Amino acid sequence: MKGRFLLSSHAFPKEENIYAKRSALVLDWLLRNGRKDMTFSLREIASETGVSLGLVQRVLATLVFHGVVETHGLRTAKMFSLKSKMKLLSLWAAHYNILKKCKIWNYASAYSPDELTQVLSHSLLRNKVAFALHSAARVMGLSNTNLKTLELYLLDSSERKKIEKILKLEPKEMGYDVLLIEPYYRDLLVQSKEEKEKIKRASWILTYLDLYHFPLRGSEQAQYLLEKHSGHESILDA
């Protein structure tokens, strides 16, 4: 009976690995492109995300194990389909916490978010940041709070001191008017198609994930974002 429980090395995939920086590109691709009525291959995902075939295979193996992705065919002819976008999004949110994964700096400011945004918009530093959290939701027109805060991802952490100076920010121990955040999922930010003259923003998927565990009215804003986003039907019905 010794061989009874012998399983392949992929039988119990390491779940936490699929939420890492590079594999997140695969998760993001699935949420943006996957549908029940379509199939896709490992090579298709690898080609469009720039992620290695081996990593794509490991991510999909884990998602098959969790019943999120379904396989069709065998070996070289194997194809995949996404069974539930909502389950995938929920799994990702449960394993990612912006407070644990990102370095964050708190600041006080004498200026409003609109005034600070104006300063950035007319600066070369506009390409070094991206709206995050509540600010990203506000830019999307999907905010459900009256918070007067500004949250920015640093696309280039070496520019932090310059941004502090141009915005006249003062470090703050508790609470904040402005947050500067070093991104964990930087690759999800730099792939944005925003025009060069505009300040980028995090995608609605990353914004949802960031808000999910954020203590300042994050959970309610995340749920509102999910419900009101223009593509929410494809998430909730999948």
Secondary-structure blueprint:
Elements lengths: L23 H10 L8 H8 L3 H13 L3 E4 L6 E4 L2 H11 L2 H4 L1 E6 L4 H9 L7 E3 L1 H7 L10 E5 L5 H8 L2 E2 L6 E5 L3 H5 L9 E2 L2 H9 L5 H11 L3 H5 L2
Parallel strand pairs: 4-8, 5-7
Antiparallel strand pairs: 1-2, 3-6, 3-7, 4-5
Helix pairs in contact: 7-10, 10-11
Tell me what you see in this structure.
It is built from twelve helices and eight strands. With 238 residues, it is an alpha/beta fold. The protein folds into two domains: 2-95, Orthogonal Bundle (Arc Repressor Mutant, subunit A); 98-236, Beta Polymerase, domain 2 (2-Layer Sandwich). The N and C termini lie far apart (42 Å).
Number of strands: 8
Q: Radius of gyration over alpha carbons? A: 20 Å
Helix and strand element order: HHHEEHHEHEHEHEEHEHHH
Strand order of the largest sheet: 6-3-7-5-4-8
Approximate strand percentage: 5-15%
Name the CATH class of the largest domain. Alpha Beta
Enumerate how many helices there are, as a single number.
Answer: 12
Biggest sheet statistics: 6 strands, mixed
Measure the end-to-end span: 42 Å
What oligomeric assembly is this protein in?
Answer: single chain
**What is the number of independent domains?**
2
| Helix content estimate | 40-55%
User: Which CATH-level-2 architecture of the largest domain?
Assistant: 2-Layer Sandwich
| CATH topology description of the largest domain | Beta Polymerase, domain 2
| Mean pLDDT across all amino acids | 88
Spans of at least 5 consecutive residues with low confidence:
1-12
